[in-house]
Fold each of these.
Amino acid sequence: MTHHRLLQIGPITPALDAKLATLYDIHPLWQEAKPAAFLAEHGTEFEGVVTHLRHACPAELLAALPQAKFIVNFGVGYDKIDLAAARQQGLQVANTPKVLDGCVADLAFGLMLDVARGLSATDRFVRRGDWKTSQRPLMTRVYGKRLGLLGFGGIGQTIARRASGFDMDVRYHSRKPVAGSAHTHMASLIELAQWADFLVVACVGGPSTRHLVSREVLDALGPQGILVNIARGTVVDEVALVAALGEGRLGGAGLDVFENEPHVPAPLLGLDNVVLLSHIAGFTRESRRDMEQLVCDNLASYFACGKVLTPV
Ligand code: GLV
């Protein structure tokens, strides 16, 4: 173990928690009965923070760590970290990009296929014994359709590559066009939603993207359109989404993320045109292993040269 004293906000994975404890002088904040009192007394001891995408890193917590130089986050999404406060305090922030893009892209297709073809709904139909007396309704195909991507970073671009195997026409909306991409950038999200059969949310969470998928965007996607969200629940106005689905103004939705996890709006539970998952897009043995390694590599890089490997 090195003498570097690090604050870990909450549990990450059992394997990584154990490994970090052998490498650094790690303090598990979640085991403190009174975290604020602990930080008031010991906050100056910590050189940096290790955290997980689900644990909050608010400004007050960071302010109690005046000697900290970095936050290393397990997760590509860092919306639970107060980035503005971290930047103001001069903290380097690292996430785990790229290593889970493929698994998240796979799950986006899993959700598109499930909602469009009714896989989960048909599974329930068979288990109920309904096949003996009735037939499922005709559903809609995925290949050859129009795919709109909200966000065109590593995950969006991986989804676009997968889409070529489905002969899909792909366009995207992001703040700026991505240089060198063959896909059409659309400056208006509403126009992208009007054009698309499937709208997949693949952008960052946090204040900059809150409720970008509004009632107007959902109405533009329309009664035949399918929304898939594998990014963050906050990007979609969930009240507007529940209303659009309930009123038949939207064709269906595949949701891996929600505004207030693990709370899922009750009206969605009874809808067969909605597939509900529990934030599992990056949840494979392979991506977990690679994310664990990248957390360790970010820490090693900081202590070797003063810079994290994958800064936000
Ligand atoms: C998953 O949601 C991640 O941010 O890594």
Amino acid sequence: MVKLSPSVLTADFLTLSDILPKFEKSGVDMLHLDVMDGIFVPNISFGIPVINSIKKHTSLPLDVHLMIDKPHRYIKEFAEVADWLGFHYEAGSDVGETLKEIRKYGCKSCLTIKPNTEAEEIFDFLPLCDMVLVMSVDPGFGGQKFMPSSLDKVRKIAKEAKRQGISLEIEIDGGINAETAPLAVEAGVTVLVAGNYIFSAENIEETVKSVKSL
Ligand code: DX5
Ligand code: ZN
């Protein structure tokens, strides 16, 4: 069954504590937290203090997506609050060392690629990844349109992981909704991130269940 990781980026943070129990009851698997520094992406979101507040209100694993420049500077701090910790291949850190460090601190490691990065560029790093995140929009904002070119990348990564005998999660992030989620699952995605689709739903629990049943 596909896993679901709702992104809280566009949520109303003051009402989030009412929604988190609904997520837990309806089968959400983890919570996606987008950290943006205004340098790697043209937007600023939130950091460790906000993640700590969220952590107090949920038992869901926290899936932290770092969209920050030179992420190796902050791995130790984020590893203390995250369960899954991901950073961008393009962000200017030593990729192999950063993945190893994430695991060393007891987190699941995730390597993330932007729409313009080819799947082949990260093949050598797959043995160090617990998850690969394929961006299906340019990182920075919620509510953008899904880029179908991401599906081919998912297929390539799934095929290469199999060839290398590695078991990893493949996550997709950006523009996931009722139309695009089935395409992603069919391509080999095992974790769907969804922001606007979940948070703008009239009935969040029903929407979660319908995604989970794909
Ligand atoms: C964008 C973020 C996403 C975003 C997804 O840079 O990484 O996680 O919240 O939002 P939707 O699902 O609305 O495209
Ligand atoms: Zn994200």
